[in-house]
Amino acid sequence: MAVRTAPADNIYATHPEKKVALYFMVLGFIALSIGVIFGPFQIFNYAGIDLYPALEPLFKSYYQGLTLHGVLNAIVFTQLFIQGSLLYLQARDSNLRPQMPVAWAAWWIALIGLALAAWPLLTNDATVLYTFYPPLQGHWAFYVGAALIIVSSLVSVYLSVEMWVRWKRQNPGKPTPLVTFMITATWMMWGLAAMGLVVETVFFLIPWSLGLIKGVDPLIARSLFWWSGHPIVYFWLLPAYVSWYGLLPKQAGGKLVSDSLARMAFLGFLAFSTPVGFHHQFADPGISAFWKGVHTVLTMMVAVPSLMTAFTIAASLELAGRSKGGKGALGWIRKLPWNNPSVVAQLLGAIAFIFGGAGGIVNASFTLDYVVHNTTWIPGHFHLPVATASTLTFFGIAFWLIPHITHKPLAAPRTALAGVWWWFTGMMFMAFGMHMMGLQGVPRRAHISAMNAAHDGIYASSAFYMVFNAVAGVLLTVAATMLFYVLFATLLSRRRLTPDQVPEIPFAEAIAGPVDKDGNVKSGIKVMDRLFFWWGFAVVLVLIVYMPTLVQLFMHMVPAPGMRLW
Amino acid sequence: MDNEKMIHAIERYERSWLLFALVMIVVFLIFIGYTLTGFAFYVPSAAERIDPTKVRAEGSLFANPRVEKTGDNVYTAYVLAQAFTFLPGEIRVPKGARVVFLVTSPDVQHGFYIRGTNVNVQVIPGEVGKVEHTFNEPGEYLVICNEYCGLGHQDMIGKVIVEDN
Ligand code: HEM
Ligand SMILES: [Cu+2]
Ligand SMILES: [Cu+2]
Question: Which residue of B has its CA nearest to A256?
Answer without folding.
Answer: B7
